[in-house]
Write a structure and sequence with these properties.
- By secondary structure, this protein is α+β, with helices and mostly antiparallel strands.
- It folds into two domains: 217 residues, Jelly Rolls, CATH 2.60.120; 97 residues, Arc Repressor Mutant, subunit A, CATH 1.10.10.60.
- The strands form two sheets. It has a six-stranded mixed β-sheet with strand order 2-1-4-9-6-7, with no helix packed on it. It has a six-stranded antiparallel β-sheet with strand order 3-10-5-8-11-12, covered by helices on one side.
- Helix 6 crosses helix 9.
Length: 359
């Protein structure tokens, strides 16, 4: 897909948008921000909650689910989509266009959500704060953040990007790991089991390098049958994040955080991730200069997980990558991920993925 074709694709009205335009355009043009519906949006007591299902990778509401299902979903955040029957890039990434000519009610997600303003503008209400987005801007939302989007017109194209937890294995490579605030935010958002809300508004309007990289990313994503589309999608996504990292570091006023993340805790997590094969609490303590017990309390406080759980999560991330990209045996993959007991490897793998390796 060429960039010119992408622009036409994104601006084309979907069938439901044609109907919504006819019904709602006059009302919202005359009552934008003042209509009765906007009052309702502001006063919804319990926002909708969305998560990804294991079976079909579809976003569903859990408001009407039994209490034990709600509890499990909110505690686990989102089952790894390796269990979903998805192929290629869709295992860890979803890019959608928001429906125009209608508002989107208050809701929260149990996965990382990124809003990107492709063209036009909109009001995005995140965690009680009104954010006016213009073309080129981003909002990154941690699981637990509540947001709504006011009415958008025909030229207001908002792109929704959803990252699965293990998307970190694709985007958080060594080029994006470091003691910087944006990387720290992403690490916390992708790996934390807590639903304490947090978001960052990246005012990247007018930054052509980022807008061009986003356009090329979407060209590859929306045309997946082209040769090497998945490889290029990963490459352009890394490029986008690297450019955002550079721009927000050189011009910190462009990155507006609801709450700045703890870069030291993110450094601890990064070290565990890079050394999950053989790291211990003592080796982590030696690396960062903290007491081993204090490290454990920090991880539970900020990520809701123990040291062993976090290390096992990174080991599983590595194991699945090995098993899905090569013909390595399960036993060899287990050993390369730090497991000397194959029975223990199978147990942890099943707990994390809900299935046995290569099943």
């Amino acid at each position: 897909m060429k960039i010119s074709e992408l622009d036409a694709f994104l601006k084309e009205l979907m069938p439901n948008e044609v109907e919504l335009k006819e019904i709602n355009q006059k009302y919202y043009t005359e009552n934008r921000g003042e209509g009765e519906l906007f009052s309702v949006m502001r006063n919804v007591d319990k926002p909708y909650v969305y998560y990804y299902t294991v079976d079909d990778n579809l976003s569903v509401q859990i408001n009407n689910c039994p209490p034990h299902v709600k509890k499990e979903v909110l505690q686990r955040r989102t089952p790894p989509s390796f269990d979903a029957m998805m192929k290629g890039v869709n295992r860890w990434l979803c890019i959608q266009r928001h429906v125009r000519f209608t508002p989107h009610y208050r809701h929260m997600h149990t996965y990382v959500e990124i809003n990107y303003m492709y063209s036009g503008s909109c009001i995005n209400k995140v965690d009680g704060r009104d954010i006016e987005m213009q073309a080129g801007d981003f909002i990154f939302m941690k699981p637990g953040s509540v947001h709504s989007i006011l009415w958008t017109g025909e030229d207001d194209i908002l792109i929704n990007i959803i990252l699965m937890p293990h998307a970190a294995s694709v985007i958080l490579d060594k080029t994006l790991i470091g003691a910087n605030v944006l990387s720290s935010f992403l690490i916390e958002a992708l790996y934390s089991d807590t639903t304490r809300p947090n978001h960052v508004f990246l005012k990247m309007r007018g930054t052509e390098s980022i807008q061009n990289a986003m356009a090329r990313l979407m060209c590859e994503y929306f045309d997946p049958n082209v040769v090497a589309a998945e490889v290029l999608t990963e490459s352009y996504l890394r490029t986008v994040f690297a450019l955002l990292w550079r721009e927000s570091t050189l011009y910190p006023e462009k990155a507006i955080y609801a709450k700045k993340p703890n870069t030291k805790v993110a450094e601890i997590l990064s070290y565990i991730r890079e050394n999950c094969f053989d790291c211990t609490r003592d080796s982590v303590a030696l690396h960062v200069g903290y007491n081993r017990n204090y490290i454990s309390s920090l991880l539970v406080e900020h990520y809701g997980k123990s040291f062993v759980d976090i290390r096992n999560e990174f080991r599983m991330e590595r194991a699945e990558k090995l098993l899905s990209s090569s013909d390595i045996s399960v036993r060899d993959a287990a050993e390369q991920c730090g497991f000397t007991n194959i029975t223990q490897f199978y147990k942890v793998y099943r707990e994390y993925f809900g299935r046995l390796p290569r099943k």
